[in-house]
Design a protein that fits this description.
Acetyltransferase (GNAT) domain-containing protein; about 140 residues; NSI-like; binds coenzyme A; 5-stranded mixed β-sheet; alpha+beta; Acyl_CoA_acyltransferase
Length: about 140
């Protein structure tokens, strides 16, 4: 498949970003909110197939030793083609000296395990919507 990878936020349809996150059952907001989040991130990766946005991910980071990955999502019709893996690996390649952490959506842990991520024993989170996050199975 002829894929194009983009490492900046130029000409992104932010409403589509919101739509893809929604389809992936991830937290989603208005396009404007995602624009701000991606533009304020250290590293962004967008994947296009024939000029159509089909997936993305981002990392917030100091650029040197710590990074957190968020919003990794691929359009459902493109799942299982190695695109999610490509997104995460490309984020890592952009800031290769960093440690990476993330919290997986429940059920998606195995995807990250295949990319060599390990479960963290002492992860702690403080969330705005604590109850919702607990109900989703992310916190105890
Ligand atoms: C999770 C997601 C990004 C994976 O993207 P994808 O392009 O389908 O995954 P890939 O094809 O790159 O898969 C890479 C490997 O992980 C495996 N994998 C993918 N999804 C998996 C899952 N849910 N459970 C277990 N393994 C999974 C694949 O079988 C593949 O294994 P292989 O290398 O041995 O062939 C995609 O399913 C998605 O967008 N889901 C909705 C949003 C979401 O949940 N994002 C993650 C939030 S933490």
């Amino acid at each position: 498949m002829d894929l194009k990878i983009q490492y900046n936020c130029n000409n992104i349809n932010w409403d589509l970003v919101s739509e893809i996150l929604k389809k992936g059952e991830m937290a989603y907001f208005s396009g404007e909110v995602h624009k701000k989040a991606f533009e304020n991130s250290h590293t962004v990766v967008f994947v296009f197939h024939e000029d159509k946005l089909i997936g993305f991910g981002r990392a917030i980071s100091d650029g040197v030793y710590q990074a957190v990955i968020y919003d990794v999502a691929v359009l459902p019709e493109y799942h299982g083609k190695g695109i999610g893996k490509e997104i995460v690996n490309n984020i890592i390649k952009c800031i290769p000296t960093c440690n990476f952490i993330l919290y997986a959506s429940p059920g998606k842990e195995a995807f990250y395990e295949k990319l060599n991520f390990k479960k963290m024993k002492t992860a702690m989170g403080l969330f705005i919507n604590a109850e919702k996050v607990r109900d989703k199975g992310i916190t105890e």
